[in-house]
Amino acid sequence: MNAPIVSFNHVGKTFDVDGFTLEAIREFNLDIAEGEFVAIVGSSGCGKSTLLRLLVGLDTQFRGQISVDGKAVTGIGGERGIVFQEHRLFPWLSVADNIGLGLVNEPLSAAQKHKRIHDFIELVGLGDFARAYPHQLSGGMAQRVAIARGLVASPRILLLDEPFGALDALTRQQMQDELLAIRARAKITTVLVTHDVEEAIFLADRVVVMEPRPGRIKQVVDIALPHPRQRSSFDFHHLREELLHELTSDDHYQPPVPVQVRDLPLSFIAY
Ligand SMILES: Nc1ncnc2c1ncn2[C@@H]1O[C@H](COP(=O)(O)OP(=O)(O)OP(=O)(O)O)[C@@H](O)[C@H]1O
Ligand SMILES: [Mg+2]
């Protein structure tokens, strides 16, 4: 591998919960090459979202080191974009303005920002909803706005936490295809958390299977299938069985509960 763009070295994370220490991540080591697509799968509570929050720089209290381009991560940075597990749209901003938040730190003119925002609104299929507000959207549409916001600044590293969980099967497949198309145009390094093993195999170069809490790497599986991948192919099925076996071969497996975006309380961008 060339020098990795992302490197987790001996990363550990604990939380203090009501006076006791909860060990969320233990001894996590992973190098990710520029342009690589890594998927992370594992049972609910094994630390997947925590890992993304550490990499994006929202939580800097952890053991070990995380580096991007050889520099230690000490906070958020424009080269890293994240789409959260729940959409976190601002209810008082329109679709276009919510997406525009992804460009606040970009050195673009107002006209350039306007064009970029509307290109991404089209990309996620919401051309008629640019001026709508989050409460006027379905859960899946809101999540598509969040995806557009994560992509609009063309980050070099894109972190996706269950981004398609609230979408219907057809839209989900369309968004997966779009994600691959975007990556084919721009060499974005991508880390995707998903509970959907098929999604991981369809998209990723490598799949990291996590052990239940404390989150550790159980296995890293290379997905050497050429694109476009055929979900019905023998090799695809074989990998699916292998991954499902890895995931469920311990007694503590708890399947993640898909997030129902519509049921969530209003929440805000965490930074
Ligand atoms: N801010 C926090 N304070 C205390 N504990 C936390 C906090 N955030 C996460 N945890 C705990 O850390 C562990 C890992 O949580 P995390 O959200 O990373 O899991 P996950 O793998 O993303 O799960 P899911 O698949 O359900 O989304 C859990 O036991 C959770 O309770
Ligand atoms: Mg999570």
TrEMBL record:
Domain ABC transporter, first and last residues per copy: 6-237
GO MF terms held by the record: ATP binding
Top-level division of the source organism's lineage: Bacteria
Keyword annotations: ATP-binding, Nucleotide-binding, Transport
Pfam families: ABC_tran (PF00005)
Keyword Transcription tagged: no
ATP-binding among keywords: yes
PANTHER family in UniProt: ALIPHATIC SULFONATES IMPORT ATP-BINDING PROTEIN SSUB, TAURINE IMPORT ATP-BINDING PROTEIN-RELATED
Entry's family note: Belongs to the ABC transporter superfamily.
Protein name: ABC transporter ATP-binding protein
Native organism: Pseudomonas monachiensis
Biological classification of the source: Bacteria, Pseudomonadati, Pseudomonadota, Gammaproteobacteria, Pseudomonadales
